[in-house]
Structure formats: C-alpha cells, structure tokens
C-alpha cells in the first residue's frame, strides 16, 4: 500500500510539472518528454487507475491537423498562463477523441451544440461565427454502405419533415476524387489543396476554380483541364456504371473501390425510397481532411417563394460523410474505428424559415404556447385559472394574461404578436350553456365546443403536420 501511495504521489507531482511547463510556454519537445514520463508512471498504477482521467494534450493540439485548409477558420485563444487553446470547430473531431479516450468501438449517437468559425458572417445566408450544429453518427465495423445509407435516409427524413422546400443530396467519394486526381496527374502532395479548390465549385465558376488551381496552387493547365472534364459530371447510378467502364479511372484501385461502394449505396437508397433525391456529383469534395470515403451534402433547389421573386439561397443545409481514420489519430496505439455521420446547420434552417415567412408576410412564432385562455367579460379570472390548469394537466401548452379583467381585444392582439395559434374564450353565456368558444387566430374563425370535448379538440388542431412554409 505504501508503495502504491508513493506512486500516486509521483503521478500527481509529474502532472503538476506538465501543467507548469505549459504555463511557462516550454517547448513542445520538452512538454512531450514530460508527458511520456507521466504516462509511464500512470501505466504502473494498473488498468483501473491508469485510465485517462484528465486531458494531457491541449484542445489546440486536438484540433490541429484535422481540417486541412479549413484550419484557418479555427478560433485561437490564449488562457491566463499563455497556453494556446481553440474554440470547438465542429462536433465530429471531439466525438472521435471521445471514442478513442473511452475505447469505444460501437455507438450510435446524436448531439446538438454550439460550434465556432472565424468566418465572414452573412446573416441572410445563415452564416455565423457562433452557431448550433445537429450531428448524427454511427461508429463501428459493419458491412459496407448500410450505415451510410441510414445516415442519408435520416438526412432526407429531417429535411422533408421541415418542409423548407425541395432539396437535392449530392454524393461522392474521397477515394474517387483521389483516384481522379492521380490519373489526371496531380502530385500526391497537392491532393488535399486541389480538393479544397474543387469544393468551391458550388459557389464559383469552373474558370475561377481553374485559375486558383493554376495561378495560386501551381497546377499545370493541362492537368486542371483534365480535372474539369470529370468534375463537371453529375447524375445517378448510371454515371457510376459509366465511370466503372472509364478506361483510366477503372484502372485506379482507390477509384474502383469508391465506385463499387457507391453502386451498393444506390441499391440501398432505392430500397429506402430516396434515390430520386440523390445525385452523384464529381464536383463534391468537402474540404475537411478527415473524410476517407463517401461524402454528401444537401442543398436546397433554389426556387422562389413567389413567381417573379429572387430565390432564397443559403448554400448547403446539411452535410457529412465517412471518416474511418479520425479516431485512430487520438488512440495511443492508432486503433481505427470506422465512422460515418451527418451534420445539420440549425441556423441555416432558421434563416430559410424566416426568409420564407417574411416573403409570405407571415409572423415568426416566438413562443411554443398553443392556446391562450381568454375571457370576454370581467370577473372571470377564477374560470380562466381553472381552465388553464385543466389544459396544463392535459399536456397542452397554454397561458393567460396576468390581469384580473383584461380587455378581449388586448388578449387577441397578444396572440397575434406572439404567434399563438388558438384562443379559448370564456363568456358568461357560454358557461351557462356548457360550451367554450375556440378561435383560430389566423383565420379568426370561431366555433363553440362543449367543455368536456375542449381538450381533445385542441389536441386535434395542434397535432396537424408540422409546417413552417
């Protein structure tokens, strides 16, 4: 026991030494040397006490080298000791690190949280520096393309249920891109940077992308032209079949593997009933370095809300792909866990909703309240309190104005301003007749409902399919 206590004390002291070196801005080599000593000491404690109980590497080190050219969008900070830190860029890298730290090899999860980008904000296009992302991921060793197809199915279900307009999901595969770059003559060292250029094709013309490849990244014009012949193609499974017969691409092992998986993927997407929403697009590159296989991105088909109006444009609203090597970057032994997932930009969805409602001159709802309990005459506070309590007990989101004798007009105006869809109006005559007046705020239609049927009628009206159009 004394020997173990002494060892635990050594671990504590060595941990303090590591933290002290970080605060003193010691060299990376010196810190790594002391961290290695700490790990050896912890290993001597045995499997139970030797688990990672605190972070040995800084968040900055966690993020660096995972995003490629997008790393320039990471927010860098310094703490009071001068240690370099970063704000979370996405939810994928922290998830991969969590899997490695906890030695998890099989999990399905979703996560909604804030992320940060050092980007140029564009409020009308849903681009912010601080925003929420909703992620869904499947980690584990499974047969090819089954989890990938499920992710695409979930993406389509979410976007369809939101009813924000027609959308298209572009799919590609990093292995196809790498194979394409190889046969076109792109040097291995330029694969990722050229990939980043190709990824801009949804925002700028091919000529602009080509100029960047040649002028800024030193690619030969002939090589860029060959890339252009491929990346301007898009279609369905027929394009996959066509490329499988391509005399050059079909000879590249990576590209052949990617095309084979895409063919399987389209079979599963057909079974899921979403193949008509999917397009195989060779220009889709996804600039993040950690993708290793299938990649995808959902874009709205830019249709105007009304004839003659400009279409709403916010870029992609959801994206994702396969990242089989990311977990291994955090595992001390480099053990890989295959992963695939998707990410939905919550603020971008909100931007679309707001623009559509503004274009239709409709009000954005600022409350979840479903019904306001109102009165038409004075001295009905007790009845309002009794009824609102009954609605609460039934699970209905209801409220009332905190006044004894509010004017009916003020109560109706409050509903219009807050976006409350229904009003129940209590009146002396209605109380005698055993009925309650139920009013639709939007249409101003009123119906008398028997008191005992009111809860069911409100639930029926508020259970209509969700629509934000």
From TrEMBL:
Coiled coil start-end: 350-377
Q: Where in the cell is it found?
A: Cytoplasm
Top enzyme class of this protein?
A: ligase
Q: Using the record's annotation, list all stretches that form the WHEP-TRS domain.
A: 3-59
Q: GO CC annotations? A: cytosol; mitochondrion
Q: Which reaction does it catalyse?
A: tRNA(His) + L-histidine + ATP = L-histidyl-tRNA(His) + AMP + diphosphate + H(+)
Residues binding L-histidine are: 90-92, 117, 133, 137, 286, 290-291
What Enzyme Commission number(s) appear in the record?
A: 6.1.1.21
Which Gene Ontology molecular-function terms are recorded? ATP binding; histidine-tRNA ligase activity; identical protein binding; RNA binding
Q: Which InterPro entries match?
A: aa-tRNA-synth_II/BPL/LPL, Anticodon-bd, Anticodon-bd_dom_sf, HisRS-like_core, HisRS/HisZ, HisRS_anticodon, uS15_NS1_RNA-bd_sf, WHEP-TRS_dom
Which superkingdom? Eukaryota
Just give the chief location class.
cytoplasm
Q: What is said about its interaction partners and assembly?
A: Homodimer.
Family as reported in the entry's similarity comment:
Belongs to the class-II aminoacyl-tRNA synthetase family.
PANTHER family tied to this protein: HISTIDINE--TRNA LIGASE, CYTOPLASMIC, HISTIDYL-TRNA SYNTHETASE
What the protein does comes down to: Catalyzes the ATP-dependent ligation of histidine to the 3'-end of its cognate tRNA, via the formation of an aminoacyl-adenylate intermediate (His-AMP). Plays a role in axon guidance.
Q: What is this protein called?
A: Histidine--tRNA ligase, cytoplasmic
- Organism this protein belongs to: Enhydra lutris kenyoni
């Amino acid at each position: 026991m004394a020997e173990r206590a002494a060892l635990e004390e050594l671990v504590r002291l060595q941990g303090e030494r590591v933290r002290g070196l970080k605060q003193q801005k010691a060299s990376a080599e010196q810190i790594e040397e002391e961290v290695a000593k700490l790990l050896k000491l912890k290993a001597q404690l045995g499997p139970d006490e030797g688990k990672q109980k605190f972070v040995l590497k800084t968040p900055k080190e966690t993020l660096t080298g995972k995003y490629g050219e997008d790393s320039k969008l990471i927010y860098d900070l310094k703490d009071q000791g001068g240690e370099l830190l970063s704000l979370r860029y996405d939810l994928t890298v922290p998830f991969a690190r969590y899997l490695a730290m906890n030695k998890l090899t099989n999990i399905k999860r979703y996560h909604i949280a804030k992320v940060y980008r050092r980007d140029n904000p564009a409020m009308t296009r849903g681009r912010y520096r601080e925003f929420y992302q909703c992620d869904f991921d499947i980690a584990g060793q499974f047969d090819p393309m089954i989890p990938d197809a499920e992710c695409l199915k979930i993406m389509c279900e979410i976007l369809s249920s939101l009813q924000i307009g027609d959308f298209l999901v572009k799919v590609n595969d990093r292995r196809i891109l790498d194979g394409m770059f190889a046969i076109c003559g792109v040097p291995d060292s330029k694969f990722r940077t050229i990939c980043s250029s190709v990824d801009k094709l949804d925002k700028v013309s091919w000529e602009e992308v080509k100029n960047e490849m040649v002028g800024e990244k030193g690619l030969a014009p002939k090589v860029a032209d060959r890339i252009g012949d491929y990346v301007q193609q898009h279609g369905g499974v027929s394009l996959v079949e066509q490329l499988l017969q391509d005399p050059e691409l079909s000879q590249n092992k990576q590209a052949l593997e990617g095309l084979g998986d895409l063919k399987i993927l389209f079979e599963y997407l057909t079974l899921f009933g979403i193949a008509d929403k999917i397009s195989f697009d060779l220009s889709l590159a996804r600039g993040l370095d950690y993708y290793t296989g299938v990649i995808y991105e959902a874009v709205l088909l830019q249709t105007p809300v009304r004839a003659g109006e400009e279409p709403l444009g916010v870029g992609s609203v959801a994206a994702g792909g396969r990242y089989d090597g990311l977990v291994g970057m955090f595992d001390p032994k480099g053990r890989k866990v295959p992963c695939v997932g998707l990410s939905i930009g919550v603020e971008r969805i909100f931007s679309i909703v707001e623009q559509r409602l503004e274009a239709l001159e409709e009000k954005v709802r600022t409350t979840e309240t479903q019904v306001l309990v109102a009165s038409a005459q004075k001295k009905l506070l007790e009845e309002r309190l009794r009824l609102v309590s009954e609605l609460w007990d039934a699970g209905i989101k209801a409220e009332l104005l905190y006044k004894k004798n509010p004017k009916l007009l003020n109560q109706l105006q409050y509903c219009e301003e807050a976006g409350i869809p229904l009003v129940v109006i209590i009146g002396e005559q209605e109380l005698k007749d055993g009925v309650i007046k139920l009013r639709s705020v939007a249409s101003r239609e009123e119906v008398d409902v028997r008191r005992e049927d009111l809860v069911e009628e409100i639930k029926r009206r508020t259970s209509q399919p969700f629509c934000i159009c």
